[in-house]
Amino acid sequence: MGVPWFTGFLEAKCPNTLLTCNIIPWREQSEHRLNPQNGLCLARTHKAAFDQGLITFDENYKLVLSLYLQKFLPEETLEYNFVAYVGNQLRLPEKFQPEPDFLRFHREEIFLGA
């Protein structure tokens, strides 16, 4: 395959495994639903975890695991899919970088704690 696709914090060779993800859910603040700075490109597993507040990104765009998710450690699948990337920084797009206030909202209102 040609040039790899870059998602949140890892490299994906197959774009079919990637999904867009709203930082602030539409149900919370629908006025941001079309704002490109309210989106991330994440692998399916990471999108599901982000949407459920199991992971988030700090003010430096680094991956953080929730206390809830950490309760299940050690566990091979979680180690492979999440723990291996803790502290890794989001790969920011050239245009429409995530709005820091939106990520703060996610950390404060959706994330299940650090």
Characteristics:
alpha+beta; two-stranded antiparallel ribbon; 6 strands; disordered N terminus
Tell me the total number of β-strands. Answer: 6
By helix and strand content, what is the structural category?
Answer: alpha+beta
* Element-by-element helix/strand order: EEEEHEEHHH
What profile does the largest beta sheet have? 2 strands, antiparallel
* Overall average residue pLDDT: 88
The coarse overall form would be: globular
- From the N-terminal CA to the C-terminal CA, the straight-line distance is 38 Å
Describe the model.
InterPro entries: HNH_nuc (IPR003615). GO terms for molecular function: endonuclease activity. This protein is 25% helix and 19% strand. The chain has four helices and six strands; from the N terminus they run ββββαββααα. β5 and β6 form a beta hairpin. The N terminus is likely disordered.
